[in-house]
Design brief:
Essential subunit of the Sec protein translocation channel SecYEG. Clamps together the 2 halves of SecY. May contact the channel plug during translocation. With about 55 residues, the protein is mainly α. It has a domain of about 35 residues. The protein contains 2 helices and no strands. The protein is elongated and about 65 Å long. The relative contact order is 0.06.
């Protein structure tokens, strides 16, 4: 029970993000994810192009 009480106490001390900060963080994650998807797709396409030209 001591563990549960300490978890509850710690949860009261947590600073939760407001809606604006949550939107900002979420858009950053989504934007970076889209960027890396595009980057790795481009790298993959270039490698395939290079390997197919070597045949």
């Amino acid at each position: 029970m001591k563990f549960i009480k300490s978890v509850i106490q710690e949860m009261h001390e947590v600073t939760w993000p407001n809606a604006r900060q949550l939107r900002k963080d979420s858009s950053s994650v989504i934007g970076l994810s889209v960027f890396f998807v595009a980057f790795f797709a481009l790298v993959d396409w270039l490698i395939q192009l290079l390997l197919s030209s070597l045949k």
